[in-house]
Write a structure and sequence with these properties.
This protein has one helix and 13 strands, in the order αβββββββββββββ. By secondary structure, the chain is mostly beta strands. A hairpin with a 6-residue loop joins β12 and β13.
Length: about 220
Amino acid sequence: MKIIIYSGIILLAITQLCKGQDIPVPSNYEIIDSVTGDLNNDSVDELVVAYNTEPENEIEGVAREIIIYKLENNTWKLWKKSRLALYGSRDGGMMGDPLERIEIKKGILLVSQCGGSSWKWGFTDKYRFQNGDFYLIGYTSNAGRPGDYWRNVDFNLSTGKMIVKKEYEDSELDEQPIYKTENETLYEKDLQITLQSRQEKEIKIVTPKYGHEIYIATGI
């Protein structure tokens, strides 16, 4: 369930001390979410912060940035950043704020976003630090509308294996609905997507069996 965090109380709580250090706030930025965890397997936690890049505009929304900090000399120092890994603050459509959460699990950075109205969409990106950068190694998504269809995608970019499952209702007028499922597995290798380049250009994969159009990146 989405959690709305635009209240002064919650923003104050977010900006409290993190492991004894203040969370950095660049000029004119606003903190949306933050998390700590070891991302490069050095037994020292990093800090990941999602920001609005200017005060919130509830009509048009504002661009967002994700910044990763390393602890150096007891101070958080900027390590990596990206304005292409997060949608804007109003890009969730009727659902408003698209950011669900950022997490760190077993050294992997997870970023979950969602949106829509009657038609809904959501996805989670999984990033791993390797070869000097944060690479997208996993992408899971779901999209559709109840009573029409629902499609789930599980894409392991490390192996190239993608599993697509679509469930939909197929029925004639005055007949009981018939629920059908389309399952498809394919391989799409050699996609290199980093945190910095996440939505830099549109990446669309069309599945060979059922012709599903899977947008891994939209080119925002």
